[in-house]
Amino acid sequence: MKSFPIVSFLCLLPLAVFTAESVVPAPAAPSAGGWRYVEIRRFPAPEARQGVTADNDFLYIISNHALGKYRKDTGTRVCGWECPKGEPLTHLNAGIVRKGRLYCAHSNFPGVPMLSSVEIWDTATMKHSGSHSFGRTDGSLTWIDRHNDRWIACFVHYGNNGGEPGRGPEWTRLVEFDDEWHQTGGWTFPANLMAQLGARGFSVSGGAFGPGGHLCVTGHDDPALYVLAMPEAGSVLNWIATIPITAQGQAFGWDPREPRLLYTLSKPGREVIVGRVESSRPAPSGRKSRRADEKKFSEIP
What we know:
Strand order of the largest sheet: 1-20-19-18
CATH architecture: 6 Propeller
Strand content: 35-45%
CATH superfamily: TolB, C-terminal domain
Order of helices and strands: HEEEEEEEEEEEEEHEEEEEEEH
Oligomer: single chain
Number of helices: 3
């Protein structure tokens, strides 16, 4: 009879040890990595809802189903484009300018099943000039960019409005395409970053390759620019820095002439924000692989 408590204790001990060892704390969010953001100026733009991109002389401000073309130097509106909701476009989100064409990510958000396309405009006339439809997609297309002569596209999943059953923000993925839109690669985002961005059901709203060739992304309403590095092996991007900014998420663009000049939006204020990412201090210490990436990012001219 007296041995029973001892047997019970010995039976429970392995379970207690297993439980303690199985709890692995999430990695801490990286710091600014020796960088800081400085806001320069703002100007109003009624289209400032979803994203902004730039060419040498103009900014292209993106709303759900409307576009505005503005002079970079004065903030003066030059012209625009617009259609009724769903006739034919529903939810433009981000864009880039390439060879005189404005390429924008488009989806049927918050509709399901998810449908996505890339829509194209002539930047000189702002007339719609082309479209590439992905049809039904694994995720909703939120932004596109060019990297190493390939298209890079982000297809996101949501936790609430616009989400599909069984797939939350952690299913968000980054896909590489050739010029004929054939998939040539793919990656996922770090679990701790997606847990942060997806805490309220949102995901990755903007992305573009910036200083040092690193991928920078934004959330839906987070006042931060998240810096990522492509992995040396495997399929998960490396989160190497978090730079506080004054914008609350949404899609953004880098200036093609001044690599550190960043264009973001204030969606509540319907404003375009012009700012600069600057080096502030040496990169902080950390794991060896992350430290090497941070050094490379902080040393870019």
